[in-house]
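User: Show me an example of a complex going from sequences to structure tokens.

Assistant: Sure. Here are the input components:
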Amino acid sequence: MKPILEVQNITKQFKIGATQESYLSLRDVLSNPFKKKTKEDNTFLALNDISFDVYPGESIGIIGKNGAGKSTLLKILSKITPPSSGQIISRGRIASLLEVGTGFHPELSGRENIYMNGSILGMRKFEINKHFDEIVEFSGVEKFLDTPLKRYSSGMQLRLAFAVAAFLEPEILIIDEVLAVGDAEFQKKCLGKMNEVSKSGRTVLFVSHDMNAIEQLCRKVIILQKGVLYKKGETHELISNYLNENKTYSFDTLKLADKLSLTNISFHPEEIISGTNLNFKISIEYEQTNIPVIRDLCLLIYSLKGVRVAVADLREFIKNLKKEDNTLSLEGTIENINLVEGEYSIGLHYNINEIRKDVYDINQIRVKPDLTFTSINPYSPNYRGFLELGKKIKIT
Amino acid sequence: MTEYLIQSQNKFSLGLKELWSYRELFYFFTWRDVKVKYKQAALGILWAILQPLIMMIVFTIIFSKALNVNSDGIPYPVFALSGLLIWNIFSNGLLNSANSMVANANIIKKIYFPRLIIPMSAILTALVDFLFSLIIYFVVLIYYHQDVNFIKLVVYLPLSIIITIITTFGIGSFLAALNVKYRDFQYMIPFMIQFLLFANPVLYSAKSFSNPWITAIMKANPIASAIQLCRSIFTGQGVDWSAIGISSIVAILLLIMGVYTFRKTESYFADLA
């Protein structure tokens, strides 16, 4: 059997200047026409010589840390951006979902948006007509079909968006992290639908930080590391290894937005006993001229398999950010972290200068069991969920 | 099974086959833009009629009443309106299409479809406005008891619209591509359009000039020729077919330049937008 997708030596190079300043001004070119000649100096390889084959009916998970090149790979596969060298042979119609609700317009009604979004995703009008009732039923927004989308809750918008995408019938479906949002029930529904898609013999490429979802959905995974294909193989073999290998979290700075980076996110103590307090410190550095407008800031706590356990919402403390030179910092304590022992990874959700984003795996915390409250040997942590209730149980 | 390649530099092609397979998207983008444009407006699509009407009234007061401009022997409102209709396709279409890639950046960065659909639909949106404004055109014609040669109307009017659209699409797709890379054009275009309004014989007669250079430029200028063609439906003056021929060639050259530039640079739009 011929592979449905042959990825051959794909390399993608970015000019660093070009990715950071989102566009040039004509004046820059006119005033500095010779600048181009130095371009060799500041390029960076987002993907370096990636090759792999995908066979029909396979579902493949793509994992890797921030900046490993996952999104770039998906963008190349979905023809949004061309590779710098290498080629991909595709033997089927590709549909990609890099974002739910691409092309949704707030002024249009739910019904109109179904047609708009569907056709942008590559569906023909008769296909949308054929599935219209199913889409509406799956999304559960019948009553609001003729209401402008701007009056929908964000959950409803998401459900509608996924519902449209779920009825795409491409040979190859590419999905990026769309399940990171939405409530648990809906996530389950989405995973179910995606499972159905891959069972029906279509090919799925799926990027996620949620290792549970990857395990459920994908038989094989590809691990990217700094733009290089690090490993490829069976999911169950690779995932536990991957989780173990990625325990070190080190970064000098992490770019959050233009001229703005996270320089420190640290926790003290490094190991906490379940139920005790955790101190944290966040520092964000910005260029002097450019004081950032911060609207959201949340610490995200994930299990090692990528399930979101808790969110420390820091929005009301944004005003407490300390300004020093050109660094904003926030120090504080989260009291009584009563998590089941184990390791948790930390992410950050932010909205700074109108850029809203989640970053994952930027640090971790280790929780040790509190052995003082019971004389009984606790069950293994695998069976105990995330929340430690031992001390909270009172018998009346 | 369709087999295709994703490579760094595809050979240059117009991609017409692909455009055809995405033909419904033209309709959806145009429909969305028209719908959104008038959705929150109490008068809605009526604005498409009111705008040229108000412009016509204002220009009639200034140019006909105050400055007494020569209008080739037809009532000035008919004269101005036949210029403004063509002019509005050009100016709205150019403005829409030049900004279209930037306005749709979030879609471009997330999904693939033939990019040419975007500036094309932007012009179709301007064309929808034009179709509505035709109503006021016919009302004015009836009001002034203007004699209409029916055969001229069904031949000259579509022909002048086609020349206008080809020109608009050529310049529009060229500017749309440049605008992604250099946002300076965003500020330049409104200014440029204002200038062009006075550089074209929209509000005055092309025959007001005797300078041979200006006459030559007018001959090669597709918008000027389209306006004159549209006007000659009423003026009874003969059509200068050599001017129509030359400016059609210019229009096609502009189209080739625009589409070529656009196709050459479009694959990097997602990286730049």
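The lines above are the inputs; the final block is the predicted structure for all two components together. Chain A touches chain B through 47 residues (CB under 8 Å).
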